[in-house]
From TrEMBL:
It comes from the Bacteria. It comes from Nitrincola lacisaponensis. Residues 280-337 form the Protein FecR C-terminal domain. PANTHER family: PERIPLASMIC SIGNAL SENSOR AND SIGMA FACTOR ACTIVATOR FECR-RELATED (PTHR30273), PROTEIN FECR (PTHR30273:SF2). This is Iron siderophore sensor protein. The lineage of its organism: Bacteria, Pseudomonadati, Pseudomonadota, Gammaproteobacteria, Oceanospirillales. Residues 142-234 form the FecR protein domain. Residues 18-64 form the FecR N-terminal domain. GO terms for molecular function: sigma factor antagonist activity. InterPro entries: FecR, FecR_C, FecR_N, Ferrdict_sens_TM.
């Protein structure tokens, strides 16, 4: 695969590449001449038409599918020769061990070779390309937490910030403004009010401007979720003028999606701030959102293999120290099975 394709892989979201890999597996397993196979093909065609990125991701999966028939070391050597990757590294060992299929009931040799290959493909993507994005984020950051960590910091103006798990931010203070760039993850802000400079939290999806206030910012998929506890904030997308800012009042939440800001709406403070108390709180929460949260609190990746399953609801209070306990509740209370490829890749189907 050439450098142009590698660039395209970097631009496509991991979640979209995972979805394309799952379509690969389902199509290869199915009897496309049967009624269920014809429906699957129709659903797949509809998915392709929904977004040009879907077609691009599937095309990449077609190429990578064949590439995985060769050892992962060869794939990485061909893709990233300039980075001097050690093909005997722990990352590659992780991939090899992850493809030894296990479930919570013990060792399982997967009968579906297509699904097995798709699973390894997903993990190969995360191992091969995920480290690049993380390296760039680390290079840009002043503060960063690993999976399972939290970090409280106090800035020179006596503002208090708490970084949630797997979070990175940069601090750019000057004489005119106090600017924080949230690069990934989630953070809680208690902004000192005895400073006349505006306090701005910027993300790739937009910015939050305040003076003194308490609020939470979470980056999730392709959006930033802003939840205001105290004070008043102004929300702007990158292309909005200041006089068009959306105002949030205490108890309100809004979503920044680059070009759009959602209508402010009430939010559940207990659930949003639960991570500050080392808890995960879900109230009738869609499984897709639950898994997005779990993927931030544990090593590896949980993948839901069907869009229908993402809408199933989960409720409960769990410890952030034992995120896999949520997986047990999911499989014990919902019509879902899990396939565990070590602890680094879990499929829910």
């Amino acid at each position: 695969m050439n450098s142009d394709r590698l660039t395209l892989m970097d631009e496509l979201p991991d979640t979209l590449l995972e979805e394309a890999a799952i379509w690969q597996a389902r199509l290869r397993e199915a009897n496309l001449n049967s009624s269920s196979g014809r429906k699957l093909r129709a659903d797949f065609n509809q998915w392709l038409l929904e977004d040009t990125r879907n077609r691009a991701a599937f095309a990449e999966m077609e190429s990578l599918w064949l590439a995985l028939e060769a050892p992962l070391e060869q794939v990485i050597a061909e893709e990233l020769p300039a980075h001097n990757i050690n093909t005997n590294s722990s990352a590659n060992a992780t991939h090899d061990s992850a493809c030894q299929m296990t479930t919570r009931h013990g060792f399982l040799r997967m009968q579906s070779q297509g699904l097995a290959l798709a699973s390894c493909l997903v993990l190969a993507i995360l191992v091969t390309f995920g480290w690049q994005q993380d390296w760039l984020t680390r290079w840009q950051s002043d503060y960063i937490t690993l999976v399972g960590e939290k970090m409280p910091i106090v800035t020179e103006d006596n503002s208090h910030i708490v970084l949630n798990t797997n979070t990175a931010l940069a601090k750019d203070y000057n004489t005119l403004e106090r600017r924080i760039r949230l690069l990934k993850g989630e953070a809680w802000f208690e902004v000192a009010a005895n400073d006349n400079r505006p306090f701005i939290v910027s993300t790739s999806h937009g910015s939050v401007k305040v003076t003194g206030t308490h609020f939470n910012v979470r980056l999730m998929n392709d959006v930033a979720i802003i939840s205001l506890d105290e004070g008043r904030v102004e929300l702007l997308t990158p292309n909005m003028q200041q006089d068009a800012a959306v105002i949030l009042l205490p108890g309100q939440q809004a979503v920044l999606s680059g070009r759009h800001i959602s209508t402010p709406a009430p939010f559940d403070r207990t659930a949003v701030t639960a991570w500050l108390r080392d808890q995960l709180v879900f109230y009738n929460t869609p499984l897709g959102d639950v898994v997005d949260t779990l993927n931030r609190h544990r090593q590896g990746r949980i993948v839901i293999t069907s869009n229908e399953l993402k809408n199933l609801k989960i409720s409960g209070i769990f410890s952030t120290n034992t995120p896999d306990s949520v997986l047990e509740v999911i499989t014990n209370t919902l019509p879902i099975n899990q396939i565990r490829l070590t602890d680094y890749l879990v499929l829910l189907h």
